[in-house]
Amino acid sequence: MSSASIPASGAPRLAGAQRKLADRLGDPLLRGLTTLATLIGVLALGALVYKVFELAGESFSKFGLGFVTSSEWNPVHNQFGAADFLFGTAVTSFGALLIAGPVSVAIALFLTELAPRRVRRPVATLVELLAAIPSVVLGFWGIIVLAPAMSETIEPALNSVLGWIPLFSGTPAGFGLLPAIVILTIMTVPIVSSVTRDVFATVPTELKEGAFALGATRWEMVRMVILPYARSGMVGALILGLGRALGEAIAVTMVIGHTPQITASLFGTGDTLASRIASEYQGATTTLQISSLAYLAAILLVLALIANALARLIVRRTGLRGQAPSSGAPTAPATTPTAPVTSPSGALPHPGAVAPAPGGGAS
Amino acid sequence: MKTRKIGALACAAALALTVAACGSSNSSSSNSKTLVGAGSTLVAPLVSVWQPEYLKEHGVSVAYSAIGSGGGIAQITARTVDFGASDAPLTEDEFKEAKEVVQIPWALAATCIAYNVPGLSNHLKLTGPVLAEIFMGKITTWNDPKIAALNPGATLPSMKITPVYRTDGSGDTFAVTNYLSQISPEFKAQIGNSTQVKWPVGIGGKGNSGVGGALKSTPGSIGYIAIAYVLAEEFDYALIKNAAGNYPVPGIASISAAAAALKEIPSNNEVSIVNPPASAPAAYPISTFTYSIVPLSSPKADTLKPFLKWAITTGQKFGPKLDFAPLPAKVVQADEATIEKIG
Amino acid sequence: MNAPAATPAPVSPLLRSDGRLRRRRIVNRAMEALATLAALLAVAVLAVVIVSVLIKGISAIDLDFFLHSEVPFGEKGGGIANAIVGTLVLVALASAMAIPVGVLIGIHSSQFARSRTAAAIRFVLDILNGVPTIVTGIFIFGLLVIGHQQSGWAGAIALAIIMLPIVARACHEVLALVPDTLKEGGLALGATRWRTVLRIVLPTAAGGMITGSLLAIARVAGETAPLLFTCAIVGPGVQTNPAQALASIPVRIFELAESPSKEQHAEAWAAALLLIAAVLVLNVIARTLFGRSQARIGRTR
Q1: Which domain holds residue C112?
Q2: Phi and psi of B62, rounded to 5°?
Q3: Number of domains within chain C
């Protein structure tokens, strides 16, 4: 019985009768309060989903599900359709994942296998701090620093070398899909690498040591043991990152160029669901336009929730008990008995969760 | 324990701020001392000068958000603001949806055609038809013969023309499309005249500042932007040929000339002065009034009416520095009659 | 004698010493280099962003910046005093709403709820966490702004909704970590459930709960999207009355960013510097606090 564990109570002791009353009331009171709080939370979510769908009602009754496939967004003629924005969302989010995925896995490997002990904490913290940058700051940086730099260096280089591929054809401009992809990559790398790091930490050391005993190089051990073991966890991390990228509005809207169109070239401008809502909602002129923007929001909500739920399901099945990554919190990695409670990985909220959340985000 | 103390302190601080905020909401500024408006970015520079002046003179705080004329109309329709501001007059449908509002022309300015072409000097000469073709994507390079014909002495580069347009619901878009629709039937058929149209080519910017930003960062671009922003950012701008065949410099003189050509003011106060007739030789063809849109019966009527009266009289003196021309007398008269109806 | 000719024991292909070993080693080196490069790249990007903001923002920071609000169009000077005050008020209000409710939810799901209910609560919290913040903004717009006007309350409530799942989840996780021995000790001494929770479990988990709250605060301090439709039309000068819309630093940066004016850009950089500094400081404090509280929990095992 460690004496340090029970904090000294500084409050004056209540007299007998009062104390009995307080004791009897306290439990139901606390239970009641906490249940009320929980109901508030659930109610908030329910009200949110209900309200967004209700706002979308007018547009839904006019366009139905065809809205999703229609590529016509013309406020003057009261024609609205989500296809251009679904395309933009898909291209930017998947493009970001394509880059963020390998980079995040590499970072996770570095932090779990390669880095010397002393370097792990600081570097891990720095990567997570990347997620703490508010999206408006990243978007502003994108406008002033990234987009001009890309249009002067990377894009012309890509155009000259790979210009024969439709992806990189056309004239490099400042804003467009490519800067949006880069910015989304910067935002998703922290969460994907953090979750991947946790997944890698659950790989049993015996398996790793076994590979080394067989004479594998470190890379071969990674390839033969870690990656296959962590495969579904990595998929979960990627989907979590996808949810994050889908919902990002502000940083994307600042660099993407606001053009509803479906274009083959990454140098072109476009628009995403979240970005269009952010740029047009205040200035929407008719109730149909407002409702159509709410319809976009409803689609976005559904996509983000699916990504979120899917990721949870997958990562949960890899055995990260009590550590659903979509809302990380201080936890210890549950499956390695040798890991101390203060183990670095997984012990702090996942940057993409407590900082920008998957599908949410400091937008 | 230190963490408990920190936690307690933080809670106390949050609570204190909350109480202070609620306290201030009871004591200071109650409803009648504030006005909330939103809309046109063209009039935003003038409103930003009015805000501190009116606060000083009358103690009323006017909040304003420049979200574009379309947004101003939408917000006053939803009554989420006390007044809307729009350079585009309300259409019949908009009047119906807004239910019992009046529009009051309260400032007079112009929309310029600015461009960013390295090596090209200021005051490029363009005509309405040529401008229409540029925005329709028919003229694609700066050294197009049609542009060269209008500017014999200038060296025009072979750069691609990138039109820049407004992505939000904009009174400047309305003014420009109004002008171009009158000049070019093809433009009218293909693009039309409204606060928000579908432009076939080019890039978009949000608000006048967004267009300015896009212009600045895109060499070879040309876009329409309110005059206050053109002069503040020192953009090069085009001279547009008016009906009389002249190329007036957009400014107070040419804007006033366009407004003077206004014959009479209809009962709904819709005063469109784009493309003035040849009888106004010095008129700038894309001049525009900008309106304040207010409900006929508003809970803040007794704060709103003095503000509107002030804006169309005393407020006008702050205009010229930002290139807003003073309202013509008959417009002020019509305005005052309309303001009386608010109750 | 009739023993079969001894075939050499099969050697793991990985141990065979042939020219492939060199190639394998080279591949290994290359992969290690790539992994290190990736980590360096991430750190480099962070450094580039922070340094850009620092360099461009520091020149615009002066006393005016902190003391004055916006100036009329075209004039020089001016600052973001109203945005700083507005952000403080909005974040304080949002915290006052979200943190108590979040803590209570955490207590409920870790102390009182059955495991199935607790899992359901965690599920709901995760879903709430995954809602894009712009959709939250639209929700509050539809709920509170339509038919009325924008206000600080609407903005604060939108921020509170974003904070809630973060705080609740953090509290749950930390409270669940408190060793059962502590709870049982308290109950064994005759304390009621609520006394045990309030006097024993909560203080032990306080560090983690504060961490979660600080991180939630750091998150919403930088949020723009939920405020765009709920709390963006602001009047001149510093205001603290949440019945009206209040200026906020992220929204201000968003507005300034679209302007072509060099002065306004400089102001935006300075505001971004302030915001990044505040957010990073909060993050670092939260993480240090967490490390210390974890050490304390570790000692009680």
Answers
A1: 63-300
A2: -105, 115
A3: 2
Least Cα separation, residue C239 to chain A (angstroms): 22
Cα gap B326→B335, rounded to integer Å: 14
pLDDT in tens, A178-233: 999 999 999 999 999 999 999 999 999 999 999 999 988 999 999 999 999 999 89
| Residue-level pLDDT at A2 | 45
A160 CB-near residues (< 8 Å, 6+ apart): none
By percentage, how much of chain C surpasses pLDDT 70?
91
Measured between beta carbons, the chain A residues lying within 8 angstroms of C185 are 1, 5-6
Residue C104 placed within a domain: yes
Task: Answer yes or no: do B21 and C93 touch at CB < 8 A.
Answer: yes
Contact C258, B209 (CB under 8 A): yes
Ordered by where they begin, the domains of chain A are: 82-356 (1.10.3720.10)
Distance CA B242, CA B244 (A): 5
Q: Do C23 and C146 sit in the same domain of this protein? A: no
Residues C169 and C34 in one domain: no
Q: C286 and C237, same structural domain?
A: yes
A75 touches chain B (CB under 8 A): yes
Beta carbons within 8 Å of C234's beta carbon, 6+ residues apart: B63, B65, C82, C86, C244, C245, C246, C247
* Chain A residues inside the 8 Å CB shell of C245: none
* Nearest-angstrom CA–CA distance, A353 and A315: 14
Which residue of chain B has the CA closest to A283?
B71
